[in-house]
Amino acid sequence: AIWNLGSINADMVYTMPHLPTAGETLAATELDQFLGGKGANMSVAAARAGSLAHHIGAVGPDGKWAVDRLTEYGVDTRHIAQIDVPTGHAIIAVDQQGENQIILYSGANQKIDQNSLKQALTQANAGDILVMQNETNLQVDAARMARGLGLKVCYAAAPFDEVAVQAVLPYLDFLILNQVEAAQLERSTGKTPDALGVSDVIMTLGARGARHIDGNTGVIHDIPALPVTAVDTTGAGDTFTGYILSGLDRGLPMVNAMAQANRAAALMVTRHGTADVIPDLKDVLDARF
Ligand code: ADP
């Protein structure tokens, strides 16, 4: 099973005549609300890929709809607490040209309670996988606890923060990053990805596919991206992460798990939207590229 200490956001997308400037009051012509947050996206991807995905997190009094939606998408939501802090959200203004402006508020995502984390993880089995991203509190506690319980620990270093990634690095089995994050990490540690002490480093390379770096042998394995016309790349990385972990959880060898994740992410970039449109395993296996 997959245990995800992860963010849950309401993505509020406002359609605007133009992006508001300082001091301006401007009416939106439309509002769409979507389920988002890297954590929620990864849980949905892992569940759609066929794994038991347990989400550990928190929402506010206004977050019931997000929990309901995660449940509907097959995620175990019993370890999502409802607390007295607003649900994390993104206020996204989009103009007629598709240019955007985003206000992020982490809210409940940064107020996850230590006891509920402990309660959740003690129900995990040795060999299960813990995944985290840099949008919640308790990352180091979770990594340490999971390691102690015999779980494998995966970190997606996004949004990138040098201090946050270095703090969890000693506990990791898997590290997943995109090219920009990989360059930032190399700059801040002075080490190449194979020298970080992490068994498996996975770099996503956008339209060039993905790379696996074996931390023990230094062997690099590249898989090319599938030929698709990308219309919306939001959530592609999260879909990739959810799928690769699910593949490993279902017993696939690394290279096969990566190939499946690469297919899922390719399909994802052909769709508009995030959590709501993450493909399921059948779609991924049936897809013709
Ligand atoms: P992020 O969105 O986190 O920055 P990437 O841009 O590296 O991550 O994309 C994640 C994965 O999505 C890639 O490894 C690849 O599998 C897939 N992907 C992204 N862009 C494309 C594309 N244009 N064509 C095919 N696959 C893509």
TrEMBL record:
Catalytic positions? 238 (proton acceptor)
A GO molecular function assigned to this protein is: ribokinase activity
Residues at which ATP binds:
178, 204-209, 237-238, 262
Question: How is this protein's activity kept under control?
Answer: Activated by a monovalent cation that binds near, but not in, the active site. The most likely occupant of the site in vivo is potassium. Ion binding induces a conformational change that may alter substrate affinity.
Residue span, Carbohydrate kinase PfkB domain: 5-279
Q: Look up the record and name the pathway of this protein.
A: Carbohydrate metabolism; D-ribose degradation; D-ribose 5-phosphate from beta-D-ribopyranose: step 2/2
Keyword Lipid metabolism tagged: no
Q: Main role?
A: Catalyzes the phosphorylation of ribose at O-5 in a reaction requiring ATP and magnesium. The resulting D-ribose-5-phosphate can then be used either for sythesis of nucleotides, histidine, and tryptophan, or as a component of the pentose phosphate pathway.
On subunit structure and binding partners, the annotation says:
Homodimer.
Q: Which family does it belong to?
A: Belongs to the carbohydrate kinase PfkB family. Ribokinase subfamily.
State the name under which the record lists this protein.
Ribokinase
Q: Which organism is it from?
A: Aliisedimentitalea scapharcae
Q: Per UniProt, what is the name of the gene that codes for the protein in this document? A: rbsK
